[in-house]
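Task 17 of the worksheet. Students: predict the tertiary structure of the chain below and write it out as structure tokens. Keep your answer in the requested format; marks are given for formatting as well as content.
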Amino acid sequence: EKSDGNIQIHLGYQASPSLEGKTIIIADPMLATGKSIIKTIDTILTNGTPKMIHIAAAFAAPEGIEYIQNNLKEIPFAFWLGTVDEKLNHLSYIVPGLGDAGDLAFGPKL
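Model answer:
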């Protein structure tokens, strides 16, 4: 089945001390679209503006890197990536990547 590319991201409970002027690290094993990282950053910004964000991922897709670069302009950030794979497929899986390993860890894709 083909995806329409619309990925819904819902963040639950989050608690944090003030992040004002702090350096933070956001880790995501597989940076695919970049949307969950931007959503996470938007959420944590309610606790202050960090001076630097480090984004760490074992695998990344060029589309996700570009999405973050285009949507995170007000705070300095750096990528720490194990590898940048070729692309995303029609299901937004990193190719060649690990396929749906991340989704299978949390149940079937709806």
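Marker's comment: Helices lie at 35-44, 62-71, 101-105. The radius of gyration is 14 Å.
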